[in-house]
Amino acid sequence: MCTTCRYSAAEKCGPDGATGGETLIAHMREALAARSSNLELQTQACLWNCKRHCSVILRDTARLSYFTGNHVPTRAQAEAILDWFELHGATETGEVPFKTWPDAMRGHFIARIPPVPR
What we know:
Blueprint: H1 20-35, E1 56-58, E2 65-68, H2 75-89, E3 109-113
Helix pairs in contact: 1-2
């Protein structure tokens, strides 16, 4: 997850002084803890997707990975990202049927990336 993404198109930081990336990451950590999830959250300063902030890469070593953006830094969006990734984890290839996507994840996908062969 990008730590430096803007809070909104107009503002770098939110009311608490945190960037949008930092805010979304905090919501994601809370959501992961509430679910007792074993997913690993990794952060990275700037994913070079500034026009489509907040950016999140849904990465997998065995299935397709996805680069996403235009996420609002809210708990509801963090929940939608996790809901989608759970659907992804239930597939063999990482291809999630569009009709099963959470509504809040539609329109956020930028690229899908094949796994690196071992």
